Amino acid sequence: MVQPMTRRALWMHKIAEQIEHSILARITDGTLAPGASPGKREALAADFVTSGSVVDLAFESLLAAGHLEQGPGGTLVVAHGPQPSRQFEIPTADRLEDVQAILEMRLGLETVAASLAAERHSEAQLGQIRKAMTDYETAATEGQGAAQADFRFHHAIATASGNSYLSDLLDHLGPLLIPRMRVALPGSASETGDANLQRSVEEHRGIVDAIAARDAEGAGGAMRLHLNRSLGLIRQLQQ
Question: Start and end of every GntR C-terminal domain (predicted)?
Answer without folding.
Answer: 101-229
